[in-house]
Amino acid sequence: MAIMLRNCLQPYQIFRGLRAFSCSSQHTNSDKLYEMRSYVIKPKHFIDCMRLTYECIGLRTNHSKLCGFWAVELGGTLSQTIHIWEYDSYSQRTEVRKALSQDKKWQNEFVVHFMPMVLKQENVIMKAAPWYEMQKYLSTGGVYELVSCTFLPGKREQLEHRWMQGIKAHSKYSAPVGIWFNEIGPTNQVHTLMSYKNGDEREKVIKAASEDEEWAETVRDCNSFLTASETKILIPTQFSPWK
């Protein structure tokens, strides 16, 4: 697995060295909005799409803050990108989207070439868990794991309470970069983003945490509130602020 994860980074070496507009803080603000966008790209156009994004990402980050930009390597739909953007408010996002629609350079150099390559696009608006401080993200390259869980209606308070009690146990081995709950999009859904140096480290962390009785008990209790879960392994692009 580790070899595969390292090899899949090779197509993105062309992106090395690009500086993107990064999030201003490594600690979350529960009042901020986070938009997670996902695009499924036609497989034959994936590399061309990534190259185009590399060339034009600065035009987009002139308007708002990019937190992270990844390609999906394992889990679910392939030829897929996921990125997270930060906004101060819904009003700011509306202003940004309006400005982008009027930005002729962005429209002519990126959008008109990008959209024909896209098979599907989705987005959700999230807010960070108010009880969890965003942790320091990787800055030198690695792999990320995005875990998305759906919980029973009316059970968010109980889920959060139990999670808060046990999160320190897991953080002894690896602390989540961030935890976000959907505001708009599929309801009753929470996303956890983990970072690792490589796939082997992920397996070691999972094994160690599963043998920790406090965390194992937390997982058992939290699972009683869940109806579904999904995990994806993400590879950060070289222009992603979160490496």
Automatic annotation (TrEMBL):
Residues 34-131, 144-241 form the NIPSNAP domain. GO terms for cellular component: mitochondrion. GO terms for biological process: mitophagy. Pfam families: NIPSNAP. It comes from the Eukaryota. InterPro entries: Dimeric_a/b-barrel, NIPSNAP, NipSnap_domain. Belongs to the NipSnap family. PANTHER family: NIPSNAP-RELATED, PROTEIN NIPSNAP HOMOLOG 3B. This is Protein NipSnap homolog 3A-like.
